[in-house]
Design brief:
Two copies of one chain form a homodimer.
Chain A: E1 2-8, E2 11-18, E3 21-27, E4 33-41, E5 46-47, E6 56-58, H1 64-73, E7 87-88, E8 94-95, E9 101-103, E10 111-112, E11 115-121, E12 137-144, E13 147-148, H2 149-154, H3 159-163, E14 168-175, E15 184-189, E16 192-198, H4 206-213, E17 224-226, E18 241-246, E19 250-258
């Protein structure tokens, strides 16, 4: 099942995709809700980030080649994480598919994409074992953890390097039926493939992250966990179109534009 | 004016404090709302964290003696921040005044309080100058940025060191009328004063933080900014009662208990 959050004529609603149509749902995908039978052409609605999470988790470094390329970019030896320590991003930065990513005037040259699988939590969860971990998952979507590498290096935190407004595209929808081991992530910039990788080749699995996290923190419906990215990115500039496809989920598509 | 978020008989509502009573308000303190005239004894309601923020910002290192004592605790030279880089905390950890802070079984000895002034945002804001910065502020409350120093040292992020469930007490209410320069922060553990400091003696002011942040991120109604703490904390253990008073705002009071 594919869940969207969308807007039409100023109304924001959740919906379920049926082919080229969206069936409107009353209430929240993450709480009591009802199918309405009212359908809209998918092309007639504006897709929003499919959820605004209470807590926005991000694994950060979770694929080996990305860790190595990032370290090399800073002239440092790679430090491979020894355990699944989760990080955070911020909801101010969320946008949906087909919305523009705005590059501030004073950003440096190294504005990069990071193509990520996003886990969406559906049930309140604490103290889950790895075997139980996926029982709290609602579905999966795609995230672009847009990053500015100079700010990432010189700032004390990741705040503007990762959380500048519009820098967290997420979507296009939440897919509930996914075979994790079959997923492949592909990125295209201006139509040309820049990287492909098996989505689930993570340093620490979704199960390991959820189990470790839920020892100390309660996960809530609508929370998202961005699972990290593989490889490197070319420098992106205003005008570039970045598409992230994960097979079985869909394609997240955003154009980069200059701050006006 | 003092705004509370509270619960009585299973109903959660915002309210305004009049002496020893709370007047119930319909809607949100941060959006359309209406006074109802319906009053409850303050002693009859359970005070909750006064807001669940869309984004939970935290300055982290923002007072010189705290930075020095933290560095000394780790046997390192202090690094004084050169600019206001904001960090993040997570809403799973929020509790109100008089709720227990639960220490997990495997926490180390160095569980510490951090007494913080909390800025609550009331208006959507972007690109504010320092002179304009306070125009987006709704009011002020108190936060206890409970921290476990071993996890803070060994983990790659601050996730469990700072965001373990119940480790972000906030309250008791939001005070809208505050003279920042007159505020004094006092901490008592089991009734004995452990530290006092002038609240506004920050490395970077509220105005500097808001202006710097709003260059890149939009602030939204209900967002909170925890402004950092001064000095050090004794090691806290199960049974300890920690009270943080900021003159002109109130007292945030939480007992530490062991995980059962």
């Amino acid at each position: 099942m594919r869940w969207v959050r969308c807007e039409r004529n100023g109304n924001v609603f959740f919906g379920v995709v049926h082919g080229t149509e969206v069936e409107e749902v009353t209430g929240s995908a993450f709480a009591a809700h009802q199918m309405t039978g009212k359908r809209h052409p998918l092309a007639a609605v504006k897709l929003l980030a499919p959820v605004i999470p209470p807590t926005f988790y991000a694994a950060g470094l979770n694929y080996v080649e990305h860790i190595k390329s990032q370290a090399a970019g800073e002239g440092q030896a790679p430090k491979i994480p020894e355990k699944p320590d989760i990080g955070y991003r911020a909801v101010n930065a969320l946008i949906g598919t087909d919305e523009p990513v705005v590059i501030p005037r004073d950003a440096g040259q190294r504005v990069h994409y990071e193509a990520e699988l996003v886990v969406v939590i559906g049930k309140k969860a604490k103290h889950l074992s790895e075997a139980e971990a996926l029982s709290c998952v609602f579905g999966y979507t795609i995230g672009n953890d847009v990053s500015e590498r100079d700010w990432q290096k010189i700032d004390r935190t990741l705040w503007r390097a990762k959380n500048t407004d519009t820098w967290k595209p997420m979507g296009p929808w939440i897919e509930t039926d996914v075979n994790l081991d079959a997923l492949k992530t592909m990125v295209r910039v201006n139509g040309k493939t820049t990287i492909e990788f098996p989505t689930n080749h993570m340093l620490f699995s979704i199960q390991q992250y959820i189990s470790a996290m839920s020892r100390y923190v309660t996960l809530y419906p609508g929370d998202v966990i961005w699972m990290g990215t593989e490889g490197a990115s070319p420098n992106l500039k205003a005008g570039d179109l970045c598409e992230i496809e994960i097979t079985g989920i869909g394609t997240l598509r955003n154009r980069f534009v200059a701050e006006s």
